[in-house]
Amino acid sequence: MRKYLLHILVLASSYALAQDSTGYIKIRNLFIEGNKKTKVFVIRREMTLHENDSFPSKDMFSVLQQNKQNIFNLNLFNDVSVNIKNWENDSLDLITTVHERWVIVPVPIIKFADRNVAEWWRQYRHDFKRLQYGAQLNWDNFTGRNDRFLFGMSFGFAQRMDIGYVLPQFNKGKQQIGFSVFLTLLRTKYVAYNTINDQLAFLDLSKSWLLKKIEITPQISYRKRIYNTHFISIGYGYTAINDSVAKANPGYFLNGDRTQQYFKVGYIFESDHRDFRTYATSGWLFSFNFTNYGLGFLKTRMSATGIKFNKYFQWKKHPIFSMAGMFKWQFSWPFNQPYNLQYTKSLGYEENAIRGYEVNVLDGRHFLLAKNEYRLRVFDFQIKNMKRLQAKNSAILNSSLAYLPLKLYLTAYFDAGYVWDNYFIANNQLKNKWQFGYGVGLNLVTAGEKVLRIEYSLNRYLQKGLYLHFEQPL
Questions:
Q1: Type and span of the H or E element at 61
Q2: pLDDT of residue 107
Q3: Residue 194: exposed, middle, or buried by beta-carbon count in 10 A (0-12, 13-18, 19+)?
Q4: Within this chain, do residues 264 and 194 fall inside the same structural domain, yes or no?
């Protein structure tokens, strides 16, 4: 039986609430346990409490719960507990216990040439020639500093290699500066050369490579406060297409060019106050972005900027009910833009999508997107909570498998969006007018940031379908 149980914290907080509302609690000592690889300073960096700090006794439960969530959001631990020890008068010790999760995770790569399963299944008759397969190795907490090394290779209709390294805390002192770099090498025999009838149009599978690309993106992050982060990136990209792509769409790179190269500079500000970043049920997230391609002296010249705000609510009386909402606006210039950069400011890609339009792409220069989702938690399960295993003190309780969360949510949602465009207008009718979709679904949430979603959606034109997704909707 563990020495320090969570119910001690609840009893302690109740005691504190009974005291004078102006009373303060002082932290004498702060202990960290269970971190076999993770450096202590990585955990302490996420905490708002330190030795000799004081806080109002009436806020005890909320303050300790917030620190627990901050540490859990590192995504390094299966379980985190913050408990009380040696409470005497108005001072106490805190003990933070963590259970580290697997750090080396091999992930199979099974991708299609298409943006989602529905497009592959409906438009291209689930053609397995469009399959890309391989593996990616994610090595989290590489040196114990919450850093990540990743390496991925895939083959099939496309050959791709990704190498990346992320170090959130570069300087040991105040731990405010981080660094990352990503390299991508790609060549493919399938290319979406244009958008026709609001759907991506692909050239037939070629025997030769239709597109070759290399991109490298270093990035510096600055995080003075726990919840606010600035990202500055400077990257270089070079892409070449063969003659058949350029002839099919002379605007792919503009002016019938066969090659494109650019330097790009980007800035992102993010203020993240979500309770759990893997699947938030309360809190909020705000971000601002700006990216410039070409830096004013190369042929490829385009700038894009935008904002996003997510808000999450949880019903306190009945926490199985929650709601999520998102507002996103994206703007780009100049008027003439290369087709291959459409994904940066159009609807139909990843979270920038209206549910019910899975087979469609809404190309444009600017867009406005609003989403909301109502959630009912059906169950929340972990093996470690099974009484039968606890009674037998099974060895499985000491493994990461025991802490693997499994949550199922029943959802209802409504999305709406508008795309402005007077340039990519041929044979596309969905832009320059409001589009909306709605439906119901099931969200299966487990470890990591992926969410298995099964949704039944309808759009403005009462086109309906059952769709499968693997990313968070908002």
A1: helix 60-72
A2: 79
A3: buried
A4: yes
> Both 106 and 193 in a single domain?
yes
Judge if 62 and 106 occupy the same domain: no
- pLDDT score at 441: 96
Q: How far is CA 248 from CA 239, 338, 402, in A?
A: 17, 14, 54
What confidence tens digit (pLDDT) does each residue in 304-319 have?
999 999 999 999 889 9
Looking at the domain assignment, is residue 333 inside a domain? Answer: no
Please count the structural domains in the chain.
2
Structure tokens at 342: 């459409």
Reduce the DSSP state of residue 67 to 3 states and report it: helix
Q: Which two tokens stand for residue 183?
A: 């390299």
Catalogue the E-assigned strands of 315-365.
321-333
Give the H or E element holding residue 243: helix 243-248
* 359: DSSP letter: T
Last residue of some domain: 72, 100, 128? 100
- Asked if residue 287 is part of any domain, the answer here is no
Average pLDDT over residues 339-366: 90
DSSP letters spanning 9-56: HHHHHHHHHHS-TT-EEEEEEEEEES-SSS-HHHHHTT-S--TT-EEE
Domain boundary among 76, 100, 124: 100
Looking at beta carbons, which pairs linking 165-169 to residues 24 or more positions away fall under 8 Å? Answer: 168/221, 168/223, 169/41, 169/42, 169/45, 169/145
